[in-house]
């Protein structure tokens, strides 16, 4: 039985790749991933057969990984961040589920051993770079309405507002989708103050990283692209900036007990 | 200027500790952590001065770490999972914030350089062990009402239900708190089916790990303790168990497009 590793390569920095992820890549003969992710992983990818498909071909990429593993090749399918969070892992299980239901025609997939290797997601990298934004209850919402109806996303934005959750937006914008982030801002403004801190993180933990803290009222699609992590604080999140120190954190309320 | 590293040691397994976390512990002369976490980290802790305080002494532990660093000792404050998620990081920033406001009496803390090292949280470890539970929008809710009023927690449980978020409960139970998890179940049952899959993970990625998948209707405080991760699926999460395979995943909806 061959193994398909579903590998999280983390936010970008080499020293945030877990040893387990590195070992999984090392054990594989075949890698399925964007070229960029392999560049970040470095030498461990040398000598492996590299497979790629154009951006947007997620289903094809998951099939390819399952097919390679089913053909006897130890394979690693690699996503940045955590492969289990808005990434390729769930698609592999969706395909396997369809096969079990007889809706796919690839019984050989079921002989593949699947091993998922978790990793540090973008929201964690962003929070850690400037404090502790995720210090209390939080949620994540993907703003991509390619697969999820906008009504569902809107319902979740309202629920996030009502629950006063810190929220990290994944897929905030793409070339074809530019209005969702401003809609999300407007919904949250119904529930929390305009001065609520918002963290914008780009190319987190990489050489060209940029991190900016703005207010919810200032959040605008023009300052966000598909590589931007957007995390919005809850009504108690604090932005400290006194010229020397800059931190954003969400208190758990210990200070009330002091 | 000395550094206080806020270090995430991950869910437990040594190969899920990032190289950055290991390097931070290596750079420190003084470690502040539960003994158990140091056992999991292994040899890298040898020769360091180890400081500890009884369980529950979180504020004291954060103060101690800041004091040690302010006294010139490179210090690592260590939490399991991600130190930024329901852990010690936010408390350190809360204390620093109070100091900046003149409500603490430790100006020397402000000369300490703080570096947060993110890591793999329990919910990620749990999901990865058996599929991709976090494949779509999710939230986390701490069920501890020691610092957060129960009304706030209840409001978030309803918001989670309304938004149909996958949810991971942190601090689901302690010796003194045993009723919250059943209340949480009852609230979620108002919004999603009784057969919704629930993942119970204990001692995740460690030698005595146990993982069980039950239904939301079956969730009961008697099967949960303070070391248990409880993740509840959304209304579309799938539990596949056919004798040979067992997976839980939350689809993003790709299969609707196939």
Describe the structure.
Two copies of one chain form a homodimer. Chain A is of the alpha/beta class and 258 residues long. The first copy, chain A, has two domains: 3-120, Tetrapyrrole methylase, N-terminal domain (Cobalt-precorrin-4 Transmethylase, domain 1, 3-Layer(aba) Sandwich), CATH 3.40.1010.10; 123-257, 2-Layer Sandwich (Methyltransferase, Cobalt-precorrin-4 Transmethylase, Domain 2). Chain A is built from seven helices and 13 strands. Chain A has helices at 19-27, 35-41, 58-70, 88-100, 122-130, 150-163, 180-189; strands at 3-8, 30-32, 49-51, 75-79, 113-117, 131-132, 138-142, 166-170, 197-202, 210-215, 228-232, 238-241, 246-249. Chains A and B meet through helix 1, helix 4, strand 5, helix 5 and strand 6 of A and helix 1, helix 4, strand 5, helix 5 and strand 6 of B.
Number of helices of chain A: 7
The strands making up the biggest β-sheet of chain A line up spatially as 3-2-4-1-5
Q: Structural class of the helices, strands and pairings of chain A?
A: alpha/beta
CATH superfamily (homologous) name of the largest domain in chain A? Tetrapyrrole methylase, C-terminal domain
Residue fraction in strands of chain A: 15-25%
Largest interface: A-B, 81 and 81 residues
Shape of chain A: globular
Largest sheet of chain A: 5 strands, parallel
Helix % of chain A is 25-40%
> Whole-Å distance between the termini of chain A?
57 Å
Number of domains of chain A: 2
Mean pLDDT of chain A: 94
Order of helices and strands of chain A: EHEHEHEHEHEEHEHEEEEE
Q: What name does CATH use for the topology of the largest domain in chain A? A: Methyltransferase, Cobalt-precorrin-4 Transmethylase, Domain 2
């Amino acid at each position: 039985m061959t193994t398909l590793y579903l590998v999280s390569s983390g936010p970008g920095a080499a020293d945030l790749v877990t040893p387990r992820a590195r070992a999984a890549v090392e054990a594989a003969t075949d890698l399925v991933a964007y070229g960029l992710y392999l560049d970040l992983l470095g030498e461990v990818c040398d000598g492996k057969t590299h497979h790629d498909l154009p951006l947007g071909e997620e289903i094809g990429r998951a099939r390819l990984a399952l097919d390679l593993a089913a053909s006897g090749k130890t394979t690693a399918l690699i996503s940045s961040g955590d492969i289990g969070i808005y990434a390729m892992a769930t698609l592999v299980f969706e395909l396997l589920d369809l096969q079990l239901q007889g809706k796919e025609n690839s019984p050989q997939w079921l002989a593949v051993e699947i091993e998922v290797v978790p990793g540090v997601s973008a929201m964690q990298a962003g929070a850690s770079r400037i404090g502790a934004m995720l210090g209390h209850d939080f949620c994540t919402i993907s703003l991509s309405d390619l697969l999820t109806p906008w009504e569902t996303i809107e319902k979740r934005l309202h629920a996030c507002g009502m629950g006063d959750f810190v929220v990290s937006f994944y897929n905030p914008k793409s070339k074809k989708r530019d209005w969702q982030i401003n809609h999300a801002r407007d919904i949250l403004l119904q529930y929390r103050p305009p001065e609520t801190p918002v963290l914008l993180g780009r190319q987190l933990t990489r050489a060209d990283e940029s991190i900016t803290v703005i207010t919810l009222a200032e959040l605008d699609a023009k300052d966000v692209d598909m590589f931007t992590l957007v995390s919005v604080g809850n009504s108690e999140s604090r932005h400290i900036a006194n010229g020397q120190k800059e931190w954003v954190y969400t208190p758990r309320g210990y200070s009330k007990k002091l």
